[in-house]
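The freezer alarm interrupted the setup, so I double-checked each line after restarting. Inputs confirmed:
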Amino acid sequence: MKHVALSAGLALATLAPAAAARDLPEVRAAGTLRWGGDLQGGEPYVFEDPEHAGKIVGFEVDIVEALSRRLGLNSEFVQTDWASLIPALERGDFDLIVNGLEETEERRSRIRLSVPYFVYGETLTVLANAKYTSLGDLQGQRVGTLNQTVAHDMLKAAPVEVVLYEGQQEPYFDLAKGRTAAVLLDHIIADRYGCVLKELRCLPGDVARGHYVAGLAKGSPELERAVDAALSDMLSGGELRRILEGWHLWDGRQAELVTSAAAQPAPPPPAAGSTVSGPSVTPRAQPETTPSAAPERGAPPRLMASQLQLFLRGALVTLLVSVASFVLALPLGVGAAVLRVYGRPLARMAAAAYVEFFRGTPLLLQLYVLYFGIAEYVRLGPFTAAIVGLALNYGAYEAEVHRGALLALPRGQAQAARALGLGQLQALRHVLLPQSLRNALPAVTNDFVALLKDSSLVSVVTVVELTKRMTIVAVELRDWVTPGLLCAGLYFLMSFPLARLARRLENRLEHDPDPRAA
Amino acid sequence: MIQIHGLRKAYGAHVVLAGIEARVPAGAVVALAGPSGSGKSTLLRCLNGLEPFDAGSIEIAGHRLSPGAPGAPLARLRGDVGMVFQDYQLFPHLSALENVTLAPRVVQKLSAREAERLGQSWLERVGLADRTRHYPSQLSGGQRQRVALARALAQGAKALLLDEPTSALDPDLRGEIRSTLAQLVRERQGSEPLTIVISTHDLDLAHELASEMWVLESGTLEARARSRASGRCQGDEPAARSAAGT
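Predicted 3D structure, all chains:
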């Protein structure tokens, strides 16, 4: 739901005129340089100072502050979800992105990129006892990374199964638990979250290298020149080095900054003698790891049949996960409702505790706990965790629906069943539940449709369902409108026939136009 | 058939039944009268264990009920004591026949065919042979009442408790139910007599059917009057009606 709303918002953002960007004179007039990033990226990029609540620190904070000082400006941080940084820049939420933005051709064709301020190396991390020595050894294996990264682009071009995560810690957690064979990510992330785990080993030598750059809107050439000049000045004057050293980030790789800065501002030339024009990474090892199907610069790629097929597969995953979890949630909910209404005190309390707990905590959190939190004791696969999580959460909602439906039955019905000599279970099965289930049907249908859309949350446990597929394709196409509409259409195609089916079922069960009349 | 000793029942401080003493011989038809809220329904519900009571004892159709939590034999008691509720409480999701066959199938574990044959014959006896597939919502009030009657009797009841069987019906339909009941009583005279307790405001019904008349007031059976149409010849309808009219 959140994702759908997000993509709809992004679609609108894309439609809005890009004239919102401010250039240097306007920024100067305002006196403040506004820059975007995502605090969730964590240490050492931009993050909240654990010792001073509300204070933002990080090597990128230091860089932006130095940059602003040189431009005679104050700086102001604007928190934005990482995946939305570029659309937010385009709609003028801020003037500049500084948040581990990798320099790629795709991004260069959409926004303006500054000279680099950091050189990262793609680091391959494997289990400590694994025999793998390069990406080439991992054919057919599951390899984890983050969405919308250069590492993701590289893995898509490699013969491996890509597993996408939302946060930086989770890929290494899953690798340590043996759910994946390797993780490919920037060395900053690998050094902090992966290489430090005793179960894991980071392979020596970068798989590829690339640059972090600042992103600027297309309509601000003066600001771009000023930022480039300031960054180059910081590099030649040694300030950038001091900042990076302060964060223990200065290493041999950063020597490339000097040569790279010398080559600026002209964009890097395409790799000689090949059609490769994807991310401007410098392959260090296997050349086959460089994306080969990357789009031509400037011409946005169009939706391809293979992507359409992936979309349909995403829809199928959504449908399967939703149906499977609802099939579990329904009896769970009915059982909890029966216990709450007819159970002994202890059973009543247990059922109430279950309902209140799962209804009162976020589904997203429950999915995290099921997949990552309890992995030490119970190792659930992504699909199992997704289905169990949704089932437990929706079971709690179903319990309330059915409790209400049972309580709405005339009391005399239970008494009449008892007067006929039916035991409690017999009365439930033959008299009470058939009536309450029918009365609950509209609410149950409603819940299923809600679940269908909430199932998009299971992408946090690496299940690529319809919404996740939409965001992946949208990034590939640099367009949110077409994939967004396609995604919305597929959700509708799944939920609408269901609503019709439920209505027909209701009608079929409608022996009694007025339940009070009997 | 039914023996009640010192039956007490209170809801909090409100005493509903304050020491009921009564005896009903097998085959008797008792009309239980009394003002609204006097506890007629409560007494009936105590008789088949739907309502726990505070003190005293009840013996009905060979089963004994004691104060407090009703125990396991209740299912068997209910096979012998049928109850028809004031508002019928038919199961709206089941057809007339399914309403009648539910207990035979589920409680007495008859096969579907046996249960159906039994249900069919009971519906015929209450005059609803052509309404077996109808759902309660498709039946008139009197027809629903007769389905409820057939449902209570299909368990093989030896005693029948009727809670205000005619109060929700207009006068024509009251006559219909009266004659159905009268016919049932007539049929069951002899080796397998049917004992009936009817709570009612309907004096016609009381006069026509009842061999005894109880009046429940202030928690006790205040008066125990013989109905004028006493004896076992209630089948003579016109005579009973004229007797009631005078």
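Quick read of the result. Confidence is low (pLDDT under 50) at residues 227-246 of chain B.
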